[in-house]
Specification:
The complex is a heterodimer.
Chain A: E1 4-5, E2 11-14, E3 19-25, E4 32-38, E5 45-51, E6 54-58, E7 61-66, E8 71-76, E9 85-92, E10 103-104, E11 108-113
Parallel strand pairs in A: 2-11
Antiparallel strand pairs in A: 1-3, 3-8, 4-5, 4-9, 6-7, 7-8, 9-10, 9-11
Chain B: E1 5-7, E2 10-13, E3 19-24, E4 31-38, E5 42-50, E6 53-56, E7 65-71, E8 74-79, E9 88-96, E10 99-104, E11 108-112
Parallel strand pairs in B: 2-11
Antiparallel strand pairs in B: 1-3, 3-8, 4-5, 4-9, 5-6, 7-8, 9-10, 9-11
Classes of the chains: A mainly beta, B mainly beta.
Chain lengths: 114, 113
């Protein structure tokens, strides 16, 4: 079993829909969780981060962590064509959120149809 | 700041040739990371440096790969000799030593024929 599992997609939804992106993980030591967004031919960029369980909201984006189920989600409300990208989850055991020890999912390719 | 700068953006070479990828991290960042991204394996950490010192190179696939960081503003990743299975996008990233956001460059797309 891989440490972090993420459905590669592609996931195609119409503009304005609510999008749900998910990752599961096996290492119970993970406690710092991130979502990176990667546009085509670009490097990943940090979108959101959360520590331990709970929800975090930033505009149209909500990150959710359920440590008991080892499951994290990213919700996008009122999706826009500009949200079309690959979304990678990432997690680390280190509470400082340091980049060493960071494990990435393979990413989900999201397409928002105008 | 200009962000993490990588060169070349694209490289096409023949099997057996030496490949050198270059990276300039964000000024002030003291941790530097080299990743490789493929469809099959996703984003894999190859090696990272703290204060120019290699800390963990367990992700380097084999002896054909080597990385150096001679100073705080420059790092190289070298593949010698290159093989077709090395074809991938190689990313350099930097951050502060005590954690925080990881900033990626735009990547170097390597094709080995």
């Amino acid at each position: 079993q891989k440490e972090v599992e993420q459905d590669p997609g592609p996931l195609s939804v119409p503009e304005g829909a609510i999008v749900s992106l998910n990752c599961t993980y096996s290492n119970s030591a993970f406690q710092y969780f991130m979502w990176y967004r990667q546009y085509s031919r670009k490097g990943p960029e940090l979108l959101m981060y959360t520590y331990s369980s709970g929800n975090k909201e930033d505009g149209r984006f909500t990150a959710q962590v359920d440590k008991s189920s080892k499951y994290i989600s990213l919700f996008i409300r009122d999706s826009q064509p500009s949200d079309s990208a690959t979304y990678l989850c990432a997690m680390t055991p280190y509470s400082g959120g340091g980049a060493d020890g960071l494990t990435f999912g393979k990413g989900t390719h999201l397409i928002i149809q105008p | 700041d200009a962000g993490v700068i990588q060169s070349p953006r694209h490289e096409v070479t023949e099997m057996g040739q030496e490949v050198t990828l270059r990276c300039k991290p964000i000024s002030g960042h003291n941790s530097l990371f080299w990743y490789r991204q493929t469809m099959m394996r996703g984003l894999e950490l190859l090696i990272y440096f703290n204060n120019n010192v290699p800390i963990d190179d367990s992700g380097m696939p084999e002896d054909r790969f080597s990385a150096k960081m001679p100073n705080a503003s420059f790092s190289t990743l070298k593949i010698q000799p290159s093989e077709p299975r090395d074809s991938a996008v190689y990313f350099c990233a930097s951050s502060f030593l005590d954690g925080g956001e990881l900033f990626f460059g735009e990547g170097s797309r390597l094709t080995v024929l």
